[in-house]
Amino acid sequence: MSRAVRIRGDEVGKTSRARRIRGDELETERGARAKKRSLAEVHSTSPRSPGQLAVRSSHSHPEILFAIFEPDEAQSGAKQGRVRDVVESAMEESSDPPKPPPYEPYIPDELAADPAILAAFKHAEAKYEEEEVRLAHLFTMDHYWHKPSSCLRIDPRLLPIRELARDAVLLAAKSVILLSSFLENQPLNKCCGLWFQRDDQRKTALVLTSAHLTRKKDPNQWKGQWTGEYHHNAKVIVHLLDNTTTPGQLIYLQEHYEFAIYEVQVDKPVHLPTFNGRVHSGQDVFRLGRDANLDIKITHGNLAYDIPSRHERCHYMYFLRDASTLKLLHDDGGPIIDLEGKVVGLVNNQINETFVPSSILHKCLDFWRRFNCMPRLHLGMTFSPIKFLDPICIERMARKHNIDSGLIVEQVSKESHAEKIGIRKGDVIESFNGKHISTTIELESLLIDICWDHFDQEKKLNTEKDVSLKILDATKLCLRTRNLTAIVSDRGEDIVKGAYPITREEASLMILDS
User: Fold this and answer.
1) Buried b / exposed e along 179-214 (16+ C-beta atoms within 10 A)
2) pLDDT at 24 over 60
3) Are 267 and 203 in contact (CB under 8 A)?
4) What's the sign of the alpha-carbon dihedral 88, 92, 98, 102?
5) Of 26, 374, 408, 438, which has the highest C-beta tally within 10 A?
6) Does the residue 66 lie in any domain?
7) Which residues form the PDZ domain (predicted)?
8) Is 450 in the same domain as 402?
């Protein structure tokens, strides 16, 4: 399918509720960047940044529908206005008389010694038990023998939010599917996925999932890798919710953010979710996945910002759950939802229980619709936000060095431009292009915006872009400004650790010095 986005919008009223959008080609707008708005609130303009996807009214492609994105500034009511798909029942009313209800037979006391009565009782009892078994296997009765594994049933601490969470899960579950990958007919991986676009005329839909679906090597080895290798030609099967399967065709794979887009043929419209960019630390959320039987799996937890460990990407947020709960095996690529059933992130179980927040997903998908790729700037560094350090450490830094915000440089890639201009581990980056950045997610968002400007100037992938950095040299305790030349790329960024071999000459000198 063509990757050029064609979108179409319903007329916007005074309500802040986002609406379904449809499409025509995006146009190019030059001018100042406007404040971010909801997708359904922007009309007839080209996006100036990936957070400002334009919506243009058109009748040329009214069949294409996209998921709703609600940016951080959007306001929404708790339950009112919730969009639910209404499906009319296709079942016809039966004209057959109802089946007699099963009554349990018994022997009256006065007939207990009659052999004929006893034989008739055994026959009737067998028929009764057979009918009871049949009824027990009705789909409406399986809750009696199916042991509940959902945290919503077994965790009493969730009682105050149980009803809200139940409705949220049931709403979001309509968009959650299971995908399997195979290499030479041998199982490779399983991941979940989310519908996010559909074309009703072509009867196709796009699913967003984790790139781990086709990643090479054992998952236990991924912890020592920055960027994985992928089987782009792996066979992918999509397990639909009606228990049918269909092939998935890879459309795009983003190595750095580690998600992939597959196109799927569908016989009927799929349910598109709502994405919510508003998140806060400690927020109650639920991770959703599907097992091999397509049963939904639910894990309760809380959102958290944290300091990335080595080999963890700077755009990750963290899912904190009760340590006593079992870790899901097949929710990678599934959604993390809030108490309204809106998607706040996509699960990415790389090292810890991490996820890509919807604010980043939003910008990436906008970029892909506009430019057919999802690039970012490769800075050659990783960072720790001062904001997320222990308050004792923050207070000490502020008291002794008058600094309480910024990003601490944790790693500098060997022979990178950052290394060449003198940036070292422990330095603090106070601003990027004059903008003060306090978290790595804010940084990631800025890097995408810079790439948007780069492409808006008709420049391409794998070219250079200068970024002005204000740096606190932690060794010399002085501020300096440097221009960093970064690469615009949609490949995964590897941070190469500085290392060198010990030579015989060096060993001899060390012996002499000692």
Assistant:
1) bbbeeeeeebbbbbbbbbbbbbeeebbbbbbbbbbb
2) no
3) yes
4) negative
5) 374
6) no
7) 408-447
8) yes
Task: Quick: pLDDT tens for 177-216.
Answer: 999 999 998 999 999 999 999 999 999 999 999 999 999 8
Tokens of 459: 């420049």
Across the range 25-33, mean pLDDT stands at 36
Q: Tell me: do 180 and 301 sit in the same domain.
A: yes
Average pLDDT for 102-125:
89
Could you list the residue range(s) of the whole structural domain that residue 423 is in?
375-489
Higher-scoring residue by pLDDT: 427, 24: 427
Q: Are residues 366 and 383 in the same domain?
A: no
CB proximity list for 277: less than 8 A, separation 6 or greater: 69, 70, 71, 72, 74, 344, 357, 358, 359, 362
Q: Domain check: are 308 and 430 in the same one?
A: no
Pairing state between β 204-210 and 381-385: unpaired
**Residue length of the chain:** 514
Q: Say whether 151 sits in a helix, a strand or coil.
A: helix
pLDDT at 4: 33
On the question of pLDDT at 173 being above 90, the answer is yes
Q: Does 391 share its domain with 299?
A: no
Dihedral (C-alpha) 252, 454, 448, 443: value to the nearest 10 degrees? Answer: 150
pTM, entire model: 0.77
Is the domain of 181 the same as that of 293?
Answer: yes
Residue 433: count other Cβ atoms within 10 Å of its Cβ: 13
CB 253 within 8 A of CB 246: no
Q: Could you tell me if residue 112 is inside a domain? A: no
Rg (CA), the chain: 28
401-425 b/e (C-beta count within 10 Å ≥ 16 → b) = eebebbbbbbbbbeebbbbeeebee
Span 29-34, mean pLDDT? 36
327 and 194 within one domain = yes
CA separation for the pair 209, 27 (Å, rounded): 28
Contact 442/448 with Cβ under 8 angstroms?
no
Task: Please give the C-alpha separations between residue 485 and each of 35, 380, 464, 467, in angstroms, as whole numbers.
Answer: 28, 10, 6, 6
| Of residues 3 and 357, more confidently modeled | 357
What does the pLDDT read at residue 98? 80
Query: How many CB atoms are located within 10 Å of the residue 19 CB?
Result: 17
Q: What is the largest CA-CA distance in the chain?
A: 112
Structure confidence at residue 314 as a pLDDT band (50, 70, 90): confident
Please tell me whether residues 360 and 382 are part of one structural domain: no
Q: Which residues pair with 6 in a beta bridge?
A: 25
Strand pairing partners for 488?
377, 463
Please, which residues have CB within 8 angstroms of residue 263's CB and are 6 or more apart in sequence? 1, 204, 205, 206, 248, 249, 251
Number of Cβ within 10 Å of residue 306's Cβ equals: 17
